[in-house]
Design goal:
The protein is an all-beta fold. Helices cover about 0% and strands about 35% of the residues. The chain is globular, with a radius of gyration of 12 Å. The mean pLDDT is about 85.
């Protein structure tokens, strides 16, 4: 799936293509300053419920590059 981050000063608006699984309970969103975002509790910034495919990340520092994974 494609994840899109809208470049702004802060916060970052994320959106991604959803899945059509009948048993989908939500998504886990991970953030890192490293391109290889590890799926760890420390990197998890949110757990969504339902089928929503957007998230507003407010915990950012200007001038820092962030990488995301949504699973």
């Amino acid at each position: 799936r494609t994840l899109t981050a809208t470049p702004v000063i802060a916060p970052a608006s994320l959106s991604w293509g959803g899945v059509t699984a009948l048993d989908l309970r939500g998504y886990n969103i991970y953030r890192s300053t490293s391109p290889s975002v590890a799926l760890t509790t420390a990197n998890r910034i949110a757990q969504t419920t339902g089928t929503g495919t957007t998230y507003l990340d407010t915990g950012l520092s200007n001038g820092t590059t962030y990488y995301y994974r949504v699973v």
